[in-house]
Amino acid sequence: MTPRLLGAVLFVSAVSLLSVGRFFFQIADFYPKAPSPDGVTDFDRRFQALRSMLPPKGIIGYMTDPDTPANDTNAQAEYYLTQYALAPIVVVNSPDQRFVVGNFHNAVTTGSLRDRGFKLVREFGNGIALLENEKAH
Amino acid sequence: MGGWLLLFLLPVLGFAFARAVWPAPRRWSSADPIRIAVAPPIGFGIASGLHFALRTVLHLDAVFVIGAVVLVTACFAALARWRTQFAEPDAPASNANSAPVWLLLLCGAGVAMAFLTFLMLSAAAPHGEWDAWSIWNLRARFLFRAEEFVSPFSSAMDWAHPDYPLLMPGLIALLWHAAGAELTALAASANLLFLASAVAVPYFTLRLLRGSAFAALTALAILGATTLVRNSASQYADVPLAAYICIAGILLVYRLEVASAGFGPVFLAGLSAGFAAWTKNEGLLFCASLIIAFLVYLTIGRDFERRVLLLLPLAAGALAVLALVGHFKFRIAPPNDLVNVSNSALFGARMHDFNRYWVIFWAFAGEFLTFGHILLPPVIVFGVWFAIVRLRPNLTGAALLPLAIATLQLGGYFAIYLLTSKDLDWHLNTALPRLLLHVWPLAVTGVFLISGDIFAQTPQPAATNSRSK
Question: Could you say which residues from 50 to 89 on chain B have a Cβ atom under 8 Å away from some Cβ of chain A?
């Protein structure tokens, strides 16, 4: 093999190996700092008690803090994660169902909920609550 | 424990199936590493198909699905053993081009680092990333937890793309049924096996067709696109799709270069194309790309009458799975969100909007330069490579097939972007890097299939030598 051909082989293998190596060291650096348990596992656990009291199928509503912007990515992720946690119940991103999952980050009083037509069925801690929409009867 | 046993059994099923449809003349054949490399995706695909047919369609208990998997494995193992006695040589004479030890060591180091990276990423995000828990593993949970199979395909969950096919959710749900619990490590392991196949199939095939040096370079170059490992650990369906695309394209080339291998590799290629369509909607486009590229190859090549017969096993393999996909698409799933809000007038308007062509072209061009987080843009890396190494002097149409298929697939993606009803910029930014990943292992294999034979230990033909100087 001529030096030029050897150079071509070395070039391709070096670029590839250095790419793999750079990524490996980036992840090795990040890994010890990664939260444990991870965010999804943590989020999932918050809903365990609620899931155990839901029926095996059906549809449930969802609401979060009233001042959350409509296109907030974190809020969207939390809605998807709520669906992930509560499957096979279908969670619709609307409070217009008889029963509604509340996922709140700010303090909410039962009075303010009652003013909006919701009765607290049960609170599960960490901002999770099961509400009944009295207008949806 | 049951889940891990099933995870081990499914590659055994895949190997037995591969040996049954593509028999080997001996107990151990030099083509068996290819069969072992394709075994996990093939076994996973068959198991997912059985899960869909028996559990989702016929509503049988999961224990019947697991029983069917065991039974089918035993049947194919017996068939494979019986067919050994009638098998033709399934591999070419061993390729004398051996790899330098340092190249094999570099390849081994790359594989080891990629493996460790996968483990760290999986441990940090055991449920996968966004698409995993909002689409693929979410539907696996529905299939595992549900007593009925309407909810995951409900239009109330249109954000979760209920029309997406079920290979990954069905496979993960089946593994969880066998385990009796939702073990995230099972989902991660299945994804790791898909990743391993996407590297091992090109490696072992090129080892037979072009020698172990090209095989090592191919494996290393595929892993160089680090988004492959990242996507796999994220438990997205893009790497399984890339594995099926790679298997289908490469097995087709293998059969065209090793005529004695019979119809088996072509049937497996068709089956893999079908499984690609059962993994993601883009797999349907791949079936079309594969068939069109193969038809063009048949038309311009010699021996048309003899080679056209290969269409039969290719179509048979694909149709066996496409029947499942068709049942899912037409009887269960809602229409695809890319087309259901469009109509022909809107399609026409988008096709005549030349600004869209321009935007999509530049997005593709930009992605070609930054793809995969490779240290240098792959177009530059392979440009330098071909400038020095040149093409094989005796280049055949078969060797060009992988790049032709990849080009057609990318052309199809371009057309889909042109017609999509979604916001074009958003769609390009979120999906394009993953779309290129689908064809990456196949395209890299194609690059090294057509490269000049620089590792040949026998004297080169004059044409090659003069080009290499």
Answer: none
This model of the complex carries an ipTM of: 0.94
Residues of chain A found within 8 Å of residue B157, distances taken between Cβ atoms: 83, 90
Contact B422, B338 (CB under 8 A): yes
Please report, as a single letter, which amino acid is at residue B374: I
Q: What does the pLDDT read at residue A70?
A: 78
Ordered alpha helix ranges (H), B262-395: 264-279, 282-300, 304-307, 311-327, 344-351, 354-370, 378-389
* Three-state DSSP class for residue A95: coil
Structure token digits, residue B99: 């790899």
Interface contact A27, partner B, CB < 8 A: yes
Minimal CA separation from B134 to chain A, in Å:
6
B-contacting residues in A 35-94 (Cβ below 8 Å): 38, 40-41, 44, 56-57, 59, 77, 80-81, 83-84, 87-90, 92
Domain boundaries, chain A: 1-35, 39-133
Q: DSSP assignment, residue B451?
A: B
Q: Which amino acid is at B84?
A: T
Q: Are strands A118-125 and A90-92 parallel, antiparallel or unpaired?
A: unpaired
Q: CB–CB of B141 and A87 under 8 A? A: yes
pLDDT, position B115? 98
**Residue whose C-alpha is closest to residue A13's, from B392, B122, B455:** B455
Quick check: A20 and B226 CB within 8 A? yes
If DSSP codes are grouped into helix, strand and coil, which group holds residue B184?
Answer: helix
Hey, are the CB atoms on B454 and A59 less than 8 Å from each other? Answer: no
| DSSP E strands, B81-216 | none
Burial of B26 (0-12, 13-18, 19+ CB in 10 A): exposed
Cα separation, B455 vs B211, whole angstroms:
8
Say what the pTM is: 0.94
